[in-house]
Automatic annotation (TrEMBL):
Pfam families: EAL, GGDEF. GO terms for molecular function: cyclic-guanylate-specific phosphodiesterase activity. It comes from the Bacteria. Transmembrane segments: none annotated. This is Diguanylate cyclase/phosphodiesterase. CDD domains: EAL (cd01948), GGDEF (cd01949).
Length: 660
């Protein structure tokens, strides 16, 4: 059982009162007994003394009358004796009160143990007056009648005084003590309890130092906690870097805004903004420069937007802008253009000139979506569409755009499922020596044969696989299948090299070169027969890791082919620095050989490659004229529909046997 402080104090006071009154009752009874003893012994001693005094001075019973005045004086002066009588047996000889002629005898004398009982129950005390008359012993009875009324009133008065001093006054004292406790201890403690539980009203300073210390500490602690709670509230809703609202604050704002807009039948625009090439700024200049750029952009956004608009940073370089109260799309686009113009201005960050821009996707409530998730998803889709169209643009969400995104999502699921269901096949396009017209190699090309849709072109799913990293898993399957096919062809006498396309993400995986070398060793394949076709994008960063990986593969015996040369960030430094064996001329340049400049460009590549001791491969050769020109400029190899389209492994075997 748990007591409150007030109840505990009450219980403690009642306990003290109970103990006090037990002691008081015992002491009062003892005191009353002591008083009764004094009164009783006083009367008894007095009667004995008087009986003895009379006995010495009386010779016959009639002489008792001589003591009338003396006995009357004793009766008058003794408050506890109401009357004094002298009897000779039953004959009354003397009385101080003529009205009393007879005497009521005492009863239950033997059972009286205490003096209080004796005074209460005895009517009188008697003593013998002994004397000799004519040599015969006589005795008279001297009787003191006890004045019970006076004795009772005496005890009642004493009891009243005793009760007042030791009964009422202690109660009053205890009550005063209780109210003091209540005022200075119980009430303050109750206020402290309420402060601890509810933290609403802060009590005034207490009189007791210890309680005041507790109150002060609690007030200080709660004040600190309240400040920390406010800080945590702001931290939970504020982006620490930019000072803008964060995702939590955005969600709370939209939870309030959407019902209001729905009730008032109003529109608002949800803008998803992403900075263009921000990763490049971070990687090249450092995260401190990127952070300061984000802070400056946040300040600009606050200045540009109107007071009733809302802006939040929800990711690294991602912002959400909520635009309300626009009268038309023209007004909305003017706001968006103003934002893009301000952000596109040159920045100076820590002495570094920085240029940036932003792409913005727009979804409109309630036309495009009616909930937070859909608004953000649709605006995000529109933003990526803006990036596809050249960046530093804005794009409104449309139903057609959504359908395209859904197609991409479905395609993503289907192409992953296709790998599990073995719907991918490798086709092989012959590589032909221009001088001898012999097939000396084959390029492995991925094909997706869907049981329902049929053939799905690589340009539909390869870019998506690159984007979502599925290319890593798919690329591993391509390597395994191509190596296995090489072994199968070796067994039937087809001894040619196989070219395998390697994506940048696949190549940059940790230990890619070690894993590939192990595969080739485990299958006992001659590494000189394996050609890895890489694009220039792998070489852009020119990191030591790329160089060491290529060198390790090259030293092992694997050939490296630079694919689509001239279409990306071509640089002669690539050819000088990296261990490259083959240079592939892209189909777009082969197609342009009909023009004078086109022929010059292709010839320049061929001559440059020959000077660097590289073998040159022209791809996409489709006409005899193209082949003749390539032969005239001493190009080494070619592949294309003029000779043969990509074939399945079985068809390639038959074609190879027919041609070779």
């Amino acid at each position: 059982m748990i007591f409150s402080i007030q109840r505990f104090i009450l219980f403690f006071i009642f306990l003290l009162l109970a103990i006090f009154y037990v002691v008081f009752a015992y002491y009062f009874q003892k005191q009353e007994e002591q008083t009764s003893k004094v009164i009783y012994t006083t009367i008894l001693n007095d009667i004995k003394e008087k009986a003895y005094s009379i006995s010495k001075n009386i010779e016959k019973k009639e002489d008792i009358l001589l003591f009338r005045a003396q006995i009357g004086n004793i009766s008058a002066n003794s408050p506890f004796v109401s009357n004094i009588l002298v009897f000779d047996d039953n004959e009354l000889l003397l009385t101080t009160d003529p009205k009393i002629k007879k005497l009521e005898k005492n009863s239950f004398i033997d059972n009286l143990e205490t003096y209080n009982d004796k005074l209460t129950n005895l009517n009188y005390l008697s003593e013998n007056i002994n004397f000799y008359e004519q040599n015969k012993q006589k005795k008279l009875d001297l009787i003191y009648v006890i004045d019970k009324n006076y004795i009772n009133s005496y005890f009642i008065k004493n009891r009243d005084e005793f009760f007042i001093y030791f009964g009422i006054l202690p109660i009053i004292g205890f009550l005063i003590l209780f109210f003091i406790f209540k005022k200075y201890i119980t009430n303050p403690l109750e206020k402290l309890r309420q402060l601890a539980y509810y933290n609403t009203k802060i009590p005034k300073a207490f009189k007791i130092r210890e309680l005041e210390s507790i109150r002060h500490s609690m007030v200080d602690s709660f004040s600190r906690l309240e400040n920390e709670k406010k800080e945590l509230f702001l931290m939970a809703r504020t982006d620490s870097l930019s000072g803008l609202a964060n995702r939590n604050s955005l969600n709370e704002f939209l939870h309030r805004l959407i019902p209001t807009a729905r009730r008032k039948k109003e529109e608002f625009a949800f803008l998803f903004m992403d900075l263009d090439h921000f990763k490049t700024i971070n990687d090249s200049l450092g995260h401190n420069v990127g952070d300061e750029l984000l802070q400056n952009i946040s300040k600009i956004l606050k200045k540009i937007l109107r007071p009733n608009d809302f802006v939040a940073r929800i990711g690294g370089d991602e912002f959400v802008l909520i635009i309300q109260d626009f009268k038309s799309n023209l007004e909305l686009t003017n706001i968006i253009k103003r934002v893009q113009e301000q952000l596109a201005k040159p920045w100076i960050i820590q002495t570094h000139p920085v240029s940036t821009s932003c792409s913005i996707g727009i979804s409109i409530f309630p036309k495009d979506a009616e909930d937070i998730i859909s608004l953000m998803k649709n605006a995000d889709i529109a933003m990526y569409e803006a990036k596809k169209h050249g960046r530093n643009r804005y794009h409104f969400f449309t139903a057609e755009l959504n359908e395209a995104v859904l197609r991409i999502i479905n395609l993503d699921k289907q192409m992953r499922q296709a790998l599990k269901e073995k719907n991918y096949k490798l086709y092989y396009q012959p590589k032909v020596c221009i001088k001898t017209s012999k097939i000396i190699g084959a390029e492995a090309l991925i094909r997706w044969i869907d049981p329902i849709k049929g053939f799905i072109p690589p340009n539909e799913f390869i870019p998506l696989a690159e984007e979502n990293d599925f290319i890593i898993e798919l690329g591993e399957w391509i390597i395994d299948d191509a190596l296995n096919q090489y072994i199968n062809w070796q067994k039937i006498g087809i001894d040619i090299s196989i070219s395998i396309n390697i994506s940048a993400k696949q190549f940059l995986q940790n230990n890619f070169e070690d894993i590939l070398i192990k595969k080739i060793k485990d299958k006992s394949i001659n590494p000189n027969k394996i050609i890895l076709e890489i694009t220039e994008y792998i070489l852009i960063d020119q990191t030591d890791k790329v160089y060491l990986s290529l060198k390790k593969l090259h030293d092992f015996g694997i050939n490296i082919s630079l694919d689509d040369f001239g279409t990306g960030y071509s640089s002669l430094s690539y050819l000088k620095k990296y261990p490259i064996n083959y240079l592939k001329i892209d189909k777009s340049f082969v197609d342009d050989m009909n023009s004078k400049n086109g022929k010059i460009f292709v010839e320049t590549i061929v001559k440059m490659g020959q000077m660097l001791d590289l073998k040159i491969v022209a791809e996409g050769v489709e006409t005899i004229e193209q082949l003749q020109y390539l032969k005239s400029i001493s190009c080494d190899l070619y592949q294309g529909y003029h000779f043969c389209k990509p074939l399945s492994a079985k068809d390639f075997e038959e074609f190879y046997k027919a041609k070779n």
